[in-house]
C-alpha cells in the first residue's frame, strides 16, 4: 500500500553538535512529501543544547509537516524510539490515516538521510513490504576513504563483505500496524532493530533489505550505546595492528549481521 502518512523519529543524547545537520536533512527529505509527516526528536538524557538546536530546525516545517521535541529522562534508546513513535502517531491522529497506510521511519542524530528518503521507502511500501531495512555509509570508513588507518578500514570492509544483509536503526522503516502488532521497539539494547524485525517475522510480516537506500552516519568511535556501531568502530581502530581476519572474530557484530 502506498503510504499516506510518515513519522520520522530521531533519538538524541547530547547531540547538539550533530543533530542540526541530521534534522536539516530530514526537513529536506520531508519537503514536498505530499502527505502528512510528523517528525519527533527525542532528547534522551540530554544536558547540552540538543533541544534548542532541534527546535530551531523543526520550526522550518510547514503545512502538513509537523515537528515536536520530546524530553525523556529515563530508559534506553529503545525506550526513546518507542516514545517518539507514539508521540508521532499522536500528531498524525488528526489526519485520520489508517495505520496500514502509515510508515514509521527511524534514524539517528549523527546521521544524514538522502533527499528522496521518504520516496524510496514509499516505493517499497507499495510492493507490500511491512518493514524495510536500508543501509548506512559510515563516514571515513568505506573503501577509498582515509579517516582511519588502512588496516582498520580494511577490517571494517571485510566485515561488510562477509556478513549481512545488515540492519541499522539509523535507516529502518516499519508499517505502523505491523509495528503496533509486534509490540513496538523491544527494550533490548544493543540490537533493538534486530529484535523488532524478529518480532515482525514471528507474526508473518514481510521485511526486505534495501541496500540502495543509504543513510550517511558518523564514523565516531566513542560509543553512545554499549555493543553498538560506535563500539565496533572503536575496537577496530584500537586493534589496527591485528590482521583483518582476526577482527571478524574479535568484535561484536550485532549491528552488522542480522537478517532483515
Automatic annotation (TrEMBL):
It comes from the Bacteria. Pfam families: Glyco_tranf_2_3. InterPro entries: Nucleotide-diphossugar_trans. Keywords: Cell membrane, Glycosyltransferase, Membrane, Transferase. It is found in: Cell membrane. The keyword Transferase applies. PANTHER family: GLYCOSYLTRANSFERASE (PTHR43646), GLYCOSYLTRANSFERASE 2-LIKE DOMAIN-CONTAINING PROTEIN (PTHR43646:SF2). This is Glycosyltransferase involved in cell wall biosynthesis. It comes from Kineosporia succinea.
Amino acid at each position: 500500500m502506498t503510504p499516506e502518512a510518515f513519522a520520522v523519529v530521531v533519538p538524541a543524547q547530547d547531540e547538539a553538535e550533530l543533530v542540526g545537520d541530521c534534522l536539516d536533512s530530514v526537513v529536506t527529505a520531508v519537503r514536498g512529501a505530499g502527505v502528512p509527516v510528523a517528525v519527533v526528536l527525542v532528547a534522551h538524557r540530554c544536558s547540552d543544547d540538543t533541544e534548542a538546536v532541534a527546535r530551531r530546525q523543526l520550526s522550518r516545517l510547514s503545512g502538513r509537516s509537523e515537528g515536536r521535541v520530546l524530553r525523556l529522562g529515563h530508559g534506553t534508546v529503545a525506550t526513546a524510539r518507542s516514545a517518539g513513535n507514539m508521540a508521532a502517531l499522536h500528531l498524525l491522529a488528526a489526519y485520520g490515516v489508517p495505520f496500514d497506510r502509515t510508515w514509521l521511519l527511524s534514524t539517528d542524530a549523527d546521521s544524514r538521510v538522502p533527499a528522496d528518503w521518504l520516496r524510496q521507502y514509499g516505493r517499497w511500501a507499495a510492493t507490500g513490504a511491512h518493514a524495510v531495512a536500508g543501509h548506512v555509509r559510515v563516514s571515513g570508513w568505506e573503501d577509498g576513504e582515509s579517516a582511519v588507518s588502512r588496516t582498520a578500514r580494511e577490517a571494517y570492509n571485510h566485515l561488510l563483505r562477509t556478513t549481512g544483509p545488515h540492519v541499522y536503526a539509523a535507516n529502518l522503516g516499519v508499517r505502523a500496524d505491523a509495528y503496533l502488532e509486534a509490540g513496538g521497539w523491544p527494550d533490548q539494547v544493543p540490537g533493538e532493530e534486530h529484535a523488532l524485525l524478529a518480532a515482525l517475522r514471528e507474526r508473518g510480516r514481510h521485511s526486505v533489505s534495501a541496500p540502495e537506500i543509504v543513510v550517511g552516519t558518523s564514523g565516531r568511535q566513542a560509543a553512545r550505546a554499549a555493543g553498538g556501531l560506535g563500539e565496533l568502530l572503536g575496537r577496530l581502530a584500537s586493534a589496527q595492528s591485528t590482521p583483518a581476519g582476526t577482527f571478524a572474530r574479535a568484535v561484536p557484530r550485532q549491528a552488522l549481521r542480522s537478517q532483515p
